[in-house]
Amino acid sequence: MKTKHYYIFSFLLFIAFLSCNEDTLEIERKGTIIGTVLDKETEEPLENVQITTNPASTTATTDEKGEFTLNNILIDDYSVQAELDGYRTGFEAVNVVEDGISEVVINLEVKDEDNQPPSQPILVFPEDGAEDVELEVQFTWGASDPEDDDIFYTLKLRNGSTSEMQEFEIEKDTFFIVDNLQLATNYFWQVSAKDEDSEAVESAISEFKTLTTPNNPYFFVKKEDNNNVIYSGNADNDTITNTVDQNLFKLTNENTNSFKPKKNNTLQRLAFLRTVGGDTHLFTMNLDGTNVDQITSTVPVAGFRQEQISYTWSDDGAFLYYPYFDKLYRINNDGSNRTLVYSTADGSFISEVEIPEFDTDLLLLKTNDNRGYNVRIFTYRLSANAEETVILENVDGAAGAIDITANADRVLYSQDISGSENSVYRQFTARMFLYDIASGDPAVMIDTDVDPGDNELQCRFSPTEGGVIFTRVGNNFGAVPDIFTKVFGSDINDNKTFTKASMPDWE
């Protein structure tokens, strides 16, 4: 029996030993900070200086030798702060090591007791009570200092809906830019000013409200929950700062598959495609995503691959043109009076259509076979019922993303110059080309900073026709696309504008 009790006792002792060992693994590793605080001018030690750290730990007060000790400090990087009446607050960085002693010396400067604080800041923009303020705001204010000391400002911005407070530290400047504010939201802002020796002087509090609908010129899609979602956005096209994803505004939700947005400037409406059941139909809506109307019903938009099909507005917004396999239809913007305007002679599919602004009798068409290949890009004169100019034919591989200038003198398109034709319609080296209709010269490839292995697709002329907007994406399946812009003749070949986005429209 004694032997049995002995083994039980030994086992319990062993378990306790293991528990103690496990506890030792969680022991906090600590060190010590020692330091001295001196007058910067006289180098005399300073007594009764309050010592704190950031991150917070223990506190201390200096003795008659200006010395202090902070024991049992967790190992980390710290900023040691020293405060004493009549002196400017001092800071020094220190690294605490395990079981070690870290030393620091802090020199404090005497405050100028005769110093005058800055004037109360005057808030200039946005004005108090302003409405429809853009989502990117350059806050502007004014203040002065009697001794012309440097002024340090703090801008405080509070969201009236969420009560979220943002603070921005600004040195000397009397302006500061804040972007990505929320739509239709009241904001409250205040600016405080101080110099090195004064307490902060605060401005009055001012209020403004952001606009309800953004004035965004760009429309595109993002993937969310395996559906395409339409967004609008803005950009400054500054190739130096290269700010992306500005003023993003969600127009459709992730519960529907909505894509290929196209704006009509005359109606200030946005057309788009949406999957309904197993079909793709044309819809229109306001530029803020409201007042959605379905345009097509009995004859949907159809052809080779949903994402490869496109449509277009008439310039005045009265009609929409869309393909249905080998046929091209025109339909009123209210969904009435669907009319067949063109059919291919050989049964090839019509995938894309565009109309130049100043020649509504001319169509720019792209056709292909049921695999997406044997591409033809050409113009067609409706009144003559005849082809006019062939831009591209008898080439291997994929091509598309057609667009035409207002005067119908240049055509933009994308072509996979690898010439690959495969069962999954994978493109390997898609590049953008410009074709001059008047000269009839061979199309010219647009020079960009594209990397090998990337495709450039879904290209459109800019509103001035002095550049293009396009999607760039890796040629591997599952690659994430981005939207770029390029200005013709610019030293900068391209400028990323929107991330994780595709199918751009810029009118």
From TrEMBL:
Sorted UniProt keywords: Signal
Source organism: Marixanthomonas spongiae
Name listed for the protein in its UniProt record: Fibronectin type-III domain-containing protein
Domain Fibronectin type-III: 117-216
Coiled-coil annotated residue ranges, if any: none
Pfam assignment, any one: CarboxypepD_reg
Top-rank taxon: Bacteria
Signal sequence annotation: 1-21
